C-alpha cells in the first residue's frame, strides 16, 4: 500500500459513498471498488461494507483509516519541508479559515499573494473557528484564521478587529429593542457568548426574537427589509448600506469588538511559504503594526 491508497481511504471516509469518492479521485466506480478489494486482500480483512446510504468502515477499516490519515499528513509534511530546502517560495500552503473571514476578507488577500508567488499550491478549508482550531491541532493545516479569543500556545498574529454593531433600518435607541422584533444570527460560541453577555448587562428580559438565521448575510438582508434588528460584526456590513449601524460598548464604556487571529501550527514558521505569506501581509499592511 502506498500514498495513493492512503488518499483513497481518506476520500472514501469523507464521502462515505463509492460513486462520489470515485468522482473526486477522477476514477471509475468499478476501478475504485477493485482497488479496495485489493487492499482487503493485502491486509487480510474487510475494510468497508455497503449499506443503503453508501459504505461503512469495519473496525479493521477504521484502524487502517487512522493510519492512512496519519501517513497522508506525514507525507505532505515531508514534501513541504523538501520544497522548503530549495530556498524558493513554492509548494503547498495549507490553510483553514473562519467561514466569515473567508467570505469577506480572504479572497482579495489570497489573490494578491498568489499573484506574487504563483508556484505556491494553496489549499483552503473553512468552518467555524473552533473547527479551524481542531484542524490545526490535528496538523491538517499549517495556518488557521480564527475569530474571537481562543487558547493557543503557538505563534499567533492579530489580523485586525472590528466593532460589534446594532443593525436596523430604523435609528433605534436601546429602549426600543425589547418591543421590536429581533433577528438572531446563530454565530460561533465565542461571539454568541459576548452578545448574550452584553444583553444581560443591559436588559433583564430576553429579546423579542422572531427569526433565527445561520448566516450574517441573511440577518443583514432581513434587517435591510425592515423585518427587525440584529447584532453583527462590522466585517459583514458594507459602508454604503442604507442600514443604521451603531457600534456597541460594554457598561464600562469599552468598545465591544471582534478580533481576527492568524494561528500557526507547530513548526509552521520554518516553512518558506508560511514566512512569505506573513511577510506579504505585513508588506500590504494587512497585519496591524
UniProtKB/TrEMBL annotation:
Residues annotated as coiled-coil are none
- PROSITE patterns in UniProt: HTH_LYSR
CDD domains found in the cross-reference section: PBP2_LTTR_substrate
Q: Which keywords appear in this protein's UniProt record, sorted alphabetically?
A: DNA-binding, Transcription, Transcription regulation
Query: Would I find DNA-binding among this entry's keywords?
Result: yes
Q: Which InterPro entries match?
A: LysR_HTH_N, LysR_subst-bd, WH-like_DNA-bd_sf, WH_DNA-bd_sf
A GO molecular function assigned to this protein is:
DNA-binding transcription factor activity
Q: Where is the HTH lysR-type domain?
A: 1-58
Family label: Belongs to the LysR transcriptional regulatory family.
The name this protein carries in UniProt is: DNA-binding transcriptional regulator, LysR family
Originating species: Formivibrio citricus
Amino acid at each position: 500500500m502506498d500514498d495513493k491508497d492512503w488518499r483513497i481511504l481518506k476520500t472514501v471516509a469523507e464521502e462515505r459513498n463509492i460513486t462520489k469518492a470515485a468522482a473526486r479521485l477522477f476514477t471509475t466506480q468499478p476501478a475504485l471498488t477493485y482497488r479496495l478489494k485489493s487492499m482487503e486482500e493485502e491486509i487480510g480483512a474487510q475494510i468497508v461494507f455497503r449499506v443503503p446510504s453508501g459504505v461503512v468502515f469495519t473496525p479493521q477499516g477504521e484502524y487502517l483509516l487512522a493510519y492512512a490519515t496519519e501517513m497522508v499528513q506525514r507525507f505532505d509534511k515531508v514534501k513541504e519541508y523538501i520544497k522548503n530546502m530549495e530556498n524558493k517560495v513554492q509548494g503547498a500552503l495549507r490553510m483553514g479559515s473562519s467561514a466569515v473571514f473567508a467570505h469577506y476578507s480572504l479572497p482579495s488577500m489570497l489573490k494578491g499573494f498568489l499573484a506574487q508567488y504563483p508556484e505556491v499550491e494553496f489549499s483552503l478549508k473553512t468552518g467555524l473557528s473552533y473547527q479551524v482550531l481542531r484542524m490545526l491541532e490535528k496538523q491538517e493545516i499549517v495556518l488557521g484564521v480564527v475569530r474571537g479569543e481562543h487558547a493557543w500556545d503557538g505563534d499567533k498574529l492579530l489580523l485586525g478587529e472590528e466593532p460589534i454593531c446594532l443593525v436596523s433600518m430604523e435609528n433605534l435607541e436601546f429602549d426600543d429593542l425589547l418591543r421590536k422584533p429581533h433577528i438572531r444570527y446563530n454565530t460561533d460560541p465565542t461571539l454568541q457568548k459576548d452578545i448574550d453577555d452584553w444583553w444581560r448587562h443591559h436588559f433583564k428580559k430576553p429579546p423579542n426574537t422572531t427569526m433565527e438565521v445561520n448566516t450574517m448575510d441573511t440577518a443583514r438582508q432581513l434587517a435591510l427589509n425592515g423585518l427587525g434588528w440584529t447584532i453583527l460584526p462590522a466585517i459583514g456590513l458594507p459602508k454604503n448600506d442604507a442600514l443604521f449601524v451603531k457600534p456597541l460598548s460594554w457598561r464600562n464604556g469599552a468598545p465591544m469588538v471582534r478580533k481576527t487571529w492568524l494561528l500557526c501550527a507547530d513548526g509552521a514558521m520554518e516553512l518558506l511559504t508560511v514566512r512569505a505569506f506573513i511577510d506579504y501581509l505585513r508588506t500590504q499592511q494587512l497585519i496591524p503594526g
